[in-house]
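A protein record pairs a chain with a discrete description of its three-dimensional fold. The shape at a given residue is found from the number at the same position. Here is what such a record looks like in full:
>
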Amino acid sequence: MKKNLKVRSVVIVATILLCIYGIIGFPKSLAELKQNFSDNIRLGLDLKGGSHLVMTVQVQDAVKADAEQTMERLKEDLKKQNITWASMDVSEPQSVADANKVDLTIKGVPITQTSAFRSVVTDQFPTYILTALNSTDYAMRLKPTDLSALEKDTVQRTMDTIGNRIDQLGLAEKAVQQYGGGSENQILVQLPGVDDPARVKELIGTAAVLEIDDVKDGPFSSRDALLAQHGGVLPLGTKPVKAIPRGGAEGEQWYLVSKVPVISGREMRNARAGQDEFRKWETDFTLSPDAGKRFGRYTGDNIGNRLAVILDNQAVSVATIQARIEDSGRITNLGSQQEAEDLSRYLRSGSLPASVRYDEERSIGPSLGADSIHEGFVAGLVGLLAVISVMLVYYKRSGVNAVLALALNTVILLAAISYFHAVLTLPGIAGVILTIGMAVDSNVLIFERIREELRTGKGVIAAVDTGFNKAWWTIVDTHVTTVVSCAFLFLFGEGPVKGFAVTLTIGLIANVFTAVFVSRTIFDWEFSGRRQAEALSI
């Protein structure tokens, strides 16, 4: 009995020490203790203040990009089958609502090759519906199920990319999720404690659509000069881009580049900032194996021609192909170390699959967070004192047992938040307060069972044993049902609701340990010093 009691005591002491270490570490001063507590117990947006952004993913961009890639693949497949056509183009969507209206139009297919053309489209492009406009013209459009899948994938990849970019800035307390209050294409981004929201918004909002394009003509001093050179009409399959101004450069520079990229940012494997032999900043990148082979074939066939690195429809760098380039390359002519590091960060995190439009931007001041913390603290303290008072008055010395278990429950809850890197929000504080009530409820169940056994004439030790045994399954039952409810809140709720569910679940699990294991150990310690327990203050 005494050996078992010592083992349980060691477990409790070890748990307490681990919890204290998780909350405050090993502070050497009061200031360090406060700093450690602040670092380990992370506060959410509603408590700490920060930025709240709601944005809409322009999914029509991804649908158009898919149609353009399909167009290039279709051209190659038709050439292999010796099928001719007059022209191909992709319609220009104006808004998110037009995502289901993006068409790939093929004109001038000879009537004699209709069957072969239909066979190529059916076999190679099963996600598209082919519609005949007349005897020689056709339109291709994504099937509704594939369109829906592409839109969902675009939103998910956008959230992943934004999350990766924020992680690289060291903002571990961020929240990036679908916005339940808007359309399926809306994303909510919350950044607690952000000192420079404009900087973060700039990094999030930059689509970082990187392309390496074939340069057809340029440079020109203006867009009008570029158009004038070509009779006021852009050649088929080309687009004008403006070069990013550099130090020492005078005036604007415009280039005419291919509309379909040679390499896209999605095919980048890695990127890092560096300096060339002249100490000028550049970004080195590595391509995927498939893209490297394709890039090698292209550069080998086009030595002497020019390539432009296009970032968000602006030319970052224009260079002449001097040799075959395969799986790696350099983006030179960057203005500063910051620019090189930003560009490498964009490439590592991946290009956004579509641009985003900001619908809402709110800044929550730290004063609101301080008020919330103060009010939550006062509410929790008042509730805790009220519970302690009732337990001490009603259950006398046994109430001290319940108070100690309750205090340890709170310590374990805070330590779990620290170890799991969870974020404490205002609903989370509500979960903590509710946990206090649930913890006391467990002690009430146990103590009332013990009282019932004492009324039947049982001895003190036997009454305590029976009380704990009979209350055990009732406690497990009530806690399991509540945890299941919390699981549904976590799965289907938004950020604040999830915070409530997490803190309540952790508190309930800790409560099973403190109300049963710890409380029982305290009773056993009290009885271990007596030869015979004649009375129990309960």
Residues 235 and 256 are 9 Å apart (CA to CA). Residues 495-528 form the longest helix (34 residues).
